[in-house]
Amino acid sequence: MGYLLQQLINGITLGMIYGLIAIGYTMVYGIIGMINFAHGELFMIAAFISIISFLVLGLAGIGWVPVALLIVLAATMLLTSVYGWALERVAYRPLRHSPRLAALITAIGMSIFLQNYVQLLQGARIKPLQPVISGGFQFFTDGKFTVTLSYLQILIAVLTVALMLVFTWVINRTALGRSQRACQQDLKMASLVGVNVDRTISLTFVIGASLASVAGLMFLLLYGVIDFFIGFLAGIKAFTAAVLGGIGSIPGAMLGGLLIGLIEALWSAYFTVEYKDVAAFSILVLVLVFRPTGLLGKPDIEKV
Amino acid sequence: MTSARASSATSPRSPLDFPSALRESGVVALVTFGLAFALVGFRAEDVPGGLDIRFRFDEVMAVTAVGFIGRFAWILLRQGRAFPVAVTALPFGAAMVAALLGPLYAPAAKLERFVVFGDLVVNWLLAIFALGFGGRAAWLIWHEASSITPEAREERMDRIGAAIQQASRYVGPLLLGLALALPFMPFADRRLLDIAILVLTYVMLGWGLNIVVGLAGLLDLGYVAFYAVGAYSYALLALHFDLGFWTCLPFAGIMAAFAGILLGFPVLRLRGDYLAIVTLGFGEMVRIILLNWYKFTKGPDGLSGIPRPTFFGLPMTANPPEGTQSFHQFFGLEYSSVDRIIFLYFLILALAMITNLFTLRIRKLPVGRAWEALREDEIACRSLGINPRNTKLTAFAIGAMFGGFGGAFFATRQGFISPESFTFIESAIILSIVVLGGMGSQIGVVFAAILLIGLPEFFRELQQYRMLAFGAAMVTIMVWRPRGLLAHREPTIRLEDARLKSASADSGGQPP
Fold first, then answer.
1. Is A301 inside a domain boundary?
2. Which of A39, A247, B187, B427 has the fewest Cβ atoms within 10 Å of its own Cβ atom?
3. Do the beta carbons of residue A41 and residue A260 sit within 8 Å?
């Protein structure tokens, strides 16, 4: 029982990271209908910016954890957003009216480019970081197993929930959110009624990148090691999460992320660690076969 | 065309809007600074006991300056003011080249202190960049015309693509003749042949994937899975049952086709991107299984000692086992290690040509027509009585089969395989060859494979920049030409002459 509870906690923590990345996929897909394959690389870049920020802060002597975390969070979000913006501007905007496959190939090319760019600049070795936040509550024990809820996990949960609240507010209440929903429904019509489509799409990438950047920071804090290749698997799993939840649906992305995280944690705990990725993909196939629109997606009606 | 050019050359230029040009350049410089600040400006160095940070602010400043100046030059060019760009960029580029070449020829002059960056390749890039800008500007001055519109350029490229497609009747045999003659050319050393074999492997895989992506329109991001299945089928059959390459080749194809059907069944209902992501997942699953099923595949250790192919039973070795003859003994030749490479070269050439011929012929069969119809409109196909499921399954299976053949060849060429060789990046490379070449274009695949695989191989020394350039090239080519280099799509069949003529005669119109 305790073991199961612990795995559930771990899975939810992991799932929140996936969910934050998945939102970027689902928003971009919702608006311009392309898989932003390089989104996982933004997550990776964010993790690198975070580790560099931590090191610089360590050098500057700012050691108090809350302040350091806030500064790192702000720097990472800001600088990763620049990457998200530039990515759209350089690689995707020229291809907006091209065949979808062209955009997909560009995205894959961008992903390869960014991976090698970071590898070249920061080296191929894995980068370790000393734990920034340690400790936690031991709040439950069933005699054999003590369930621990670490401060870091609490932080991740709080941060994710706060971000989701802000994000939901942005989407539902602000002008940006309105134009974004308009673009999602019909890009051409939105431009006809005066929505600045280019700006909206740019901002979508910026928002997606900043959510992914928070995920990158969390990943760094949770695992403590990163390398230039982490974006690939995290990206695929987040996309799986987005599809699982129903692509285009933002709550669906979070739900899908949580489910993928839980599946991964439980599978690793009760079956084999090696095949946890296979499990995630198998679930994806099953969902797509039996419910192709995902859990919360709207049915895709095909008109002739 | 000529009148447009004359008018643009004579029309009075609007004065340069200096503030807005500066602002635009400033924004670009700011973004460049934002991009470079963290990742270029700092480097997390591994030191004993953790990480240390190293600063590289000179590079950040240089990159920002390059961004600013480059954008400004671009604005000037866009407005047809080529002269100032030419007079600054050309000398600068020439000076850079001189400074870079200087240490090689005149070490005493200490020219290297004038180079901008610490890294040699980055300096060269900057020099090429400057020369490119300057050259473009000079070209514009020479022709006294503003740059042609993107539409005109696109149209011109389309015409070139169409012309090459038209000429493929002649170009194809010509290329084949060249390919056949290549090993006997005086300059064909072992390195060139190795590269040619690699290129041909990708050409074959590209043609195989073209069946799935180009003809049937099913986006497959996991093609490498079939490649892996083919390679492992051959390797395991050869190692456990002592079978030869030629016996195993069909089995490798059949196993891969079977894997294709296995994948095809659950995903047939999916379309477009969903299909892409599931095939991607499938490719990863195959790799993970190969990696972890240690008893069967030896996992990350890989399989080694995979037998080489024989020439009608004659092994290509210097010292054949007792009681058998080797190739050079049978034909009374001097033993040469290049013979084996040449044999492998012809083997993959033959396999690739079989793939090509098969594709060309099957396009004319009902199933091939059904694939193309399905690609264009699934609903129309359904209503015409084409069974989408079976049609897609055949496309998957046949595409996979050729992937399997390619895999068997890969295994026999390398003599060693491990899951490392079958990562997603391989699928991406094969798919980009198909798409960059122009979907469905057989000759485009050849050009794209030479461009993407052959060219970087010559720059092996620049190993660390190779994949970077590869990714950049994928983006650049797609942005420049979104439908592929030789994109030119024509209906395979169309209702010709007779009916059209009668229709136009009925309506009293002029025949075109």
1. no
2. B187
3. no
